[in-house]
Model the fold of this input.
Amino acid sequence: MALLSVQGVTKRFGGLTAVNAVSFDVAKGEILGIIGPNGAGKTTLFSLISGFLTPDEGDVLFDGQSIKGVPTHVQVDRGLVRSFQIVQTFADMDVLDVVTTAALAKLPMVEAIDFAAQTIRRVGLGGKEYLTPAVLSLQDKKLLEVAKCVATQPRLILLDEVMAGLTMAETEAPLAVIRELNASGVTIVMVEHVMPVIMRTATRIAVINFGEKIAEGTPQGIVEDKRVIEAYFGEHLDA
Done:
């Protein structure tokens, strides 16, 4: 049984169909990449899975149970959490406070503080616990976004463009964290535009275009798919 099953999910905003009958499964322990042009509906799809939006049609199952319309905080309690494309922080909190707030989803205060400190070190932000997010580099802000997810002790993380805005060298730190999390048993679904990263990281890729899934398969199979090349890559892609 798939850990996550997206079944014919559709979302309309007035006359615009942002996501149209999208289906895919994610096995426990997998890293699924989701790619597609800007405006393809990828972030809307994440919002439908994570409870920020409710599908007009279709269903989303997590560990065999429907989570369609289930509030986000309940999903976090069950083990499904998401990051945001635009880093979300609390301006008046330091890094430790921010991650502790996330850890409080499942732990009492004293344990949450301790677990948050461990999580900060785990993602590579050790020594920056008492800095405010505003003074962090973009790379560290991205790592903080991941740390907030990890602090909730998730079974599955939806990562929305964690690498956006980073140089290739700067992607190495968050990429190492993602791989370590996956190796520890956390299932990952990641929307990403940095193609060398997604090709090296994902075990399988789904491609969204104009709200519809147009392809799904291995990274190598995806880069050779003519529909994907036409919709996303142009005439060729050097993987």
